UniProtKB/TrEMBL annotation:
Protein's name according to its UniProt entry: DUF3800 domain-containing protein
Organism: Streptomyces cynarae
């Protein structure tokens, strides 16, 4: 998706602290190329707590499931299509009060490895969009997996092994003499072995403050910027996450200027429950669109919520999902 675009217009909030509730869907840890999901979605909701509680109750009244805890899957069932359309639609609870950042995981891997090795993520998009066609499905899949392995903190105790595997694969791809941006970027990557070794040495010393392969922290940085536009003070309330340690929360507050950040049990905060619903729904709709099985009606309903700064490489689905 293109950079520096805004998603749905927020309700007027000038002069007030914005407490925004957040949750995510599609987290597979550091395994971004062969995990259970191909899309990560981070949703945020700005609503008064009593209003959010009333909306959650209305969802329960409309669906009438005996489940103690409702999840996005309840709204995504075909028999509840009308509830889902209301939930996302202009007359629903979230319109004008919510935001979604989408991450296409395979593109995120390419974006991160290019940034790591070249110091600039800009060439990643062209490489990603042409790589599969230029090299073929299987070589491209191996390149994604090797990139993922190079950057992941957890290894097999041999820091050099992912480095050797990655650069052997890059050299193999270069034997195909790729032309254009893909070839130029691969040639630059081939010369960045020392950067890769230095990175593996750093992570061998201990976990990074900002994990390279976890999209949650970049999503939170963008969420803070979105809601803080216009100079608003922002405090985030997030569902409990192991990755959000006290040190990382402190980093987030300093890096973004957040007024506050706290973790809660989603079952105890209706605003976080709504963010959980939206994140799960957005991930499913976006994944379907990415894989050519999108539902035009649902994609159109999601579109106003989607951040134009979403980390998305696929051009066709990006156009469909992007807010215009």
């Amino acid at each position: 998706m293109s950079r520096h675009r805004e998603s749905t217009v927020r309700a007027p909030t000038a002069g007030r602290l914005l407490e925004v509730a957040c949750d995510e869907s599609g987290s597979d840890g550091e395994n971004l190329t062969s995990g259970n999901t191909d899309v990560f979605a981070h949703a945020s909701v700005h609503l008064p707590l009593p209003s959010a509680a009333a909306h959650v109750q209305e969802i329960r009244d409309r669906i009438r499931s005996p489940a103690e805890e409702y999840k996005a899957a309840h709204l995504l069932r075909e028999k509840h299509r009308a509830v889902l359309e209301w939930f996302l639609g202009a007359s629903g609870p979230l319109h004008g009060h919510a935001h979604v950042l989408l991450v296409e995981k395979s593109f995120f891997v390419v974006d991160r490895v290019v940034d790591l090795l070249l110091g600039d993520p800009a060439p990643a998009l062209a490489l990603f969009r042409t790589g599969r066609e230029r090299f073929g499905d299987e070589p491209w899949r191996r390149f994604l997996e090797a990139s993922n392995d190079l950057m992941r903190a957890r290894g097999n105790g041999q820091p050099e092994a992912p480095v050797d595997s990655f650069f052997l694969l890059v050299e193999d791809l270069l034997r195909a003499r790729p032309r254009g941006d893909a070839g130029e970027t691969l040639a630059l990557l081939a010369g960045a072995r020392e950067r890769a070794r230095a990175y593996r040495a750093r992570i061998a010393d201990g976990p990074a403050l900002v994990p390279a392969l976890n999209p949650l922290l970049p999503a939170l940085v963008r969420t803070a910027a979105y809601w803080g536009a216009g100079g608003h003070q922002v405090a985030l309330v997030h569902d409990e996450q192991n990755v959000l340690t006290a040190q990382r929360i402190a980093w987030l507050k300093e890096a973004t200027g957040l007024f506050g950040f706290r973790l809660v049990d989603s079952r105890l905060d209706a605003r976080v429950q709504l963010a959980d619903f939206l994140a799960g729904i957005a991930r499913k709709i976006a994944s379907d669109e990415l894989n050519g099985r999108g539902d035009p009606g649902l994609t159109a309903l999601l579109r106003p919520y989607v951040d134009g700064d979403s980390l998305w490489g696929d051009e066709r689905s990006g156009v469909s999902l992007r807010h215009s």
